[in-house]
Design a protein that fits this description.
The chain contains 25 helices and 17 strands. It is α+β, with helices and mostly antiparallel strands and about 625 residues long. The strands form three sheets. The chain has a six-stranded antiparallel sheet with strand order 2-3-1-9-8-10. A six-stranded antiparallel sheet has the order 4-5-6-7-11-12, with helices on one face. A five-stranded parallel sheet has the order 15-14-13-16-17, sandwiched between helices.
């Protein structure tokens, strides 16, 4: 994986001030150097500048970017963040067209494929990617992002100039892009955060290229187009055929994502999803006489404080142990995070993401990724299975399925609880969130004859992929890449997404068991007691010490007259809340973000405003 950044303008030339603009390119890649500190490179021409920070995974010695290829007196150049999993097939096709390759990278394959087919080539890619290509023949810059939105790509247009980067912080190194917030920024933060509207960059005037889209910037301006859209189709396979197809797709996705010139590891949480990925990866390496490194995450002393609830009924560690007993060939490492470190990382995780996030979940994942990076550069994860197979309660609990609004973000009163009445009225969070919800629902792909419950289940699946899955993918990318770790997501393979979107709910949920289809398809890989385990989300700490640390930090902010969040907060109400945050146990986002996480989120909002000098 890597970090990319750059700019493009047709209203003048960058070359008269070459040294200045090369310095800007260097500064843009320096602030995202955590995404790839192995090599760096730049490209500056009359109308375009490209900048790249590389994490070397494929062709470690020869894959430095940008890669530049001339043809007919014109230059083509590419910078790229991601992995293409069907590189070998594509390279073979392009060799048949007469292309020679000087590297073994997927980067060069993308560039040659574009030179051969233009933007039509993007439909052939299987992988995770954010790409910028300078097309000297057409005198244009082309941006493209993967179908599932695994890899980020932000941009801003200022006075006819396009500025882009893997993370917003890269854009802010350009003199034309100053971090600012407007009313809509705070509606995003408090109304739908830590999720956000697809394509919304939260900062004023900052956008993100949407998943499955490419953009062209030339003398006519900036325009986006979709090269991939999820489609509703009739599912004609029997259950047995569906099980067989899912088993193939999952296995093929994992095996394709094992491609690397450096060793690949996996996250092993003890849940069904990561255990399936781990078992398949271990089997793949075992055929080659190699062993798989695996890592599990928990919090110091969590067994002492763990509290079973409907969302997290049991701890993960016993199931990790059972998986290791069934697969003794795994080289496993147990990782733990203490309360002090977790609290310290709350604000640092804002620097990683450029935005407030999922509080202690973001902070702990950031820490764990740093530890994994000490052993491996590439990790497989079990993310996205719940969104496409229907693992969350809002897929099958009637009151969540049928209610209007985002099912993972029902508690709007909690979101407004600590805001001043004036600020809350100004934001009008209920209307903002409901409008965003209805806009999204209207975009749901249906079959014409579908109605009632079938149509509603389409909507829930669509909302999960467009909103909740994007939030988790964004979290994983930013936490892993801040540590220089490449996280791959086999369940986000677009072939799995396309197929599962059209599988009837009755095949996904059978005999009262969520994700029954996935369990049946991959059942032979796991011990029975793990295979039928109830879903348990990413681990959280139940330690009162952590809650005390967060409460203390929030209290300091309340007493700091220079804290930028102070004008937004009802201090009297906030003090009462901080005295007993666990009394507010109903989640306001997802399954785990309740009272203590609201305080942690506000700590992150304050850090975000402070870091970027923001105000209402």
């Amino acid at each position: 994986m890597c970090g990319i950044a750059g700019f493009c303008s047709f209203q003048g030339s960058y070359e008269p001030r070459q040294q200045y603009w090369e310095t800007i390119l260097k500064e843009m890649r320096q602030v995202i150097r955590h995404r790839g500190g192995d090599q760096e490179g730049g490209f500056l021409r009359t109308h375009v500048g490209l900048s790249h920070a590389r994490l070397s995974i494929r062709d470690v010695a020869g894959g430095i970017q940008p890669i530049i290829r001339p043809r007919d007196g014109r230059e083509y150049a590419i910078i790229y963040n991601g992995e293409i999993y069907n590189t070998d097939e594509l390279r073979k096709q392009l060799k048949g067209k007469g292309y020679d390759f000087t590297t073994t990278t997927d980067t060069e394959v993308i560039l040659c494929g574009y030179m051969e087919k233009g933007t039509d080539f993007f439909q052939q890619l299987n992988g995770i990617y954010a790409v910028a290509i300078w097309d000297g023949a057409e005198n244009r810059l082309v941006l493209v992002r993967d179908r599932a939105g695994v890899k980020p790509l932000f941009y801003a247009v200022r006075s006819g100039e396009l500025i882009f980067g893997s993370e917003p912080k890269a854009l802010f190194q350009h003199p034309a892009v100053i971090p600012e917030a407007d009313l809509e920024s705070f509606q995003e933060i408090f109304g739908v955060g830590p999720a956000r509207i697809s394509g919304h960059g939260v900062f004023k005037g900052v956008r993100e290229l949407k998943p499955g889209q490419f953009a062209i910037f030339d003398e006519e301006g900036f325009r986006e187009s979709a090269y991939w859209q999820l489609q509703a189709r009739e599912h004609t396979d029997s259950y047995e055929e569906t099980v067989e197809q899912v088993a193939f797709l999952v296995r093929d996705a994992v095996e394709r994502q094992m491609v690397s010139d450096v060793p690949v590891c996996s996250f092993l949480s003890g849940g069904v999803d990561s255990s399936i990925v781990t078992a398949l990866a271990a089997k793949f390496l075992g055929k080659r006489g190699q062993k798989l490194n695996t890592f599990s995450f928990d919090f110091t002393g969590n067994g002492q404080y763990f509290q079973s609830n409907s969302f997290q009924p049991e701890q993960d560690r016993p199931y990790v142990d059972r998986m290791l007993s069934a697969h003794p060939e795994l080289c496993h490492t147990y990782l733990e995070c203490g309360e002090e470190r977790l609290a310290q990382l709350l604000e640092i995780s804002v620097e990683a993401k450029d935005l407030p996030g999922m509080a202690d979940v973001d902070a702990s994942l950031l820490y764990f990724c740093r530890l994994v990076k000490e052993h491996n550069k590439v990790a497989l994860t079990g993310e996205c299975a719940d969104e496409i197979f229907g693992g969350y309660p809002w897929f099958y609990r009637k009151e969540l399925l049928e209610g209007e609004g985002f099912p993972w973000s029902k508690n709007m009163e909690m979101r407004k609880l600590l805001l001043t009445k004036e600020f809350s009225k100004l934001l009008d969070l209920e209307e903002y969130a409901m409008n965003r919800y209805r806009e999204s629902v209207q975009q749901t792909p249906y079959l014409p004859e579908e109605s009632g419950e079938v149509r509603r289940r389409r909507e829930i699946s669509w909302l999960n992929m467009r909103w909740f899955m994007q939030t988790l993918l964004d979290r994983m990318d930013r936490a892993s890449m801040y540590a220089g770790l490449e996280a791959r997501v086999p369940f986000a393979d677009h072939r799995i997404i396309e197929y599962l979107y059209n599988v009837p709910w009755e095949m996904k949920y059978r005999e009262g068991e969520e994700k029954a289809l996935l369990r049946d398809a991959c059942g032979s890989l796991l011990p029975p007691e793990l295979l039928h385990r109830k879903k348990s989300p990413y681990p959280k700490t139940y330690s009162p010490i952590y809650q005390q640390l967060v409460t203390r930090r929030f209290a300091e902010i309340l007493e700091d007259s220079n804290a930028p969040i102070q004008p937004l907060i009802d201090r009297e109400q906030a003090r009462k809340f901080a005295a007993a945050p666990t009394e507010f146990g109903k989640p306001w986002f997802g399954q785990l973000m309740a009272g203590p996480q609201l305080l942690a989120y506000l700590v992150q909002v304050n850090q975000w405003m402070k870091l970027y000098h923001l105000s209402v």
